[in-house]
Amino acid sequence: MRQRSALVNYASSIIGSRVQAEDLVQEAWLRFDAATKGRFLDDTTGYLYRIVRNLALDSKRQIARESSLTAASDYDVAVQTRASDSPDPETVAVYKDEYAILMQALSELPERTRIACEMHRVGGAKLREIADYLDISVPLAHKLVSEGIDHCRERLGGWP
Fold first, then answer.
1. d(CA 138, CA 157)
2. E-assigned strands of 15-123?
3. Are 33 and 75 contacting, i.e. CB atoms less than 8 angstroms apart?
4. How confident is the model at residue 155 (pLDDT cuts 50, 70, 90)?
5. Residues near 28 by Cβ (< 8 Å), separated by ≥ 6?
6. Of the candidates 97, 95, 116, which has an alpha carbon nearest to the alpha carbon of residue 106?
7. FRET partner for 159 with CA separation of 20 to 30 A, picked from 11, 100, 132, 148?
């Protein structure tokens, strides 16, 4: 608590928003508390600053990524491109068949593997998020995703 205002100022200097900095410091404290349960650290302040710095940099990157994706000019270009690029019936038929094969391949997987694969490839979830959702370790989440993708590649004859 003694370092709270200094941590907020530090986070704010990185991300440029005091409101977001407050949230980051709160998140940092929760992570710090969870990581140090039952352990004594020599440099708790330095560890807290490192957590705040990492969270602030991650937040700054995410904001930059989101703003570049949602720029108005990009949206206008995407809408125009989609409107002018109507697929021909043959293309629709090919992808419809591939989609059916993919759905069949996914249905053949064990439930946990299917969920992990869908979360990662379709939902864009990170391995940590998959592990948390399935209540498994991150290496096991990686293994499940890898097995699911390999199975789908075999069935489709090469899936990126």
1. 28
2. none
3. no
4. confident
5. 7, 11, 48, 51, 52, 55
6. 116
7. 132
**Residue with token string 């440099």:** 43
d(CA 130, CA 133): 5
Distance CA 3, CA 33 (A): 15
**Would 81 be classed as within a structural domain?**
no
pTM over 0.90: no
Residue 50's domain comprises 4-69
Which residues have CB under 8 Å from 77's CB, separation 6+? none
Region for 121 from its dihedrals, namely left if φ exceeds 0, alpha if ψ lies in -120 to 50, beta otherwise: alpha
Q: Quick check: is 15 in a domain?
A: yes
User: How many C-beta atoms lie closer than 10 Å to residue 132's C-beta?
Assistant: 13
The identity of residue 79, as a single letter, is V
How many domains does the structure of the chain reveal? Answer: 2
Q: Which residues contact 3 (CB under 8 A, 6 or more apart)?
A: 45, 48
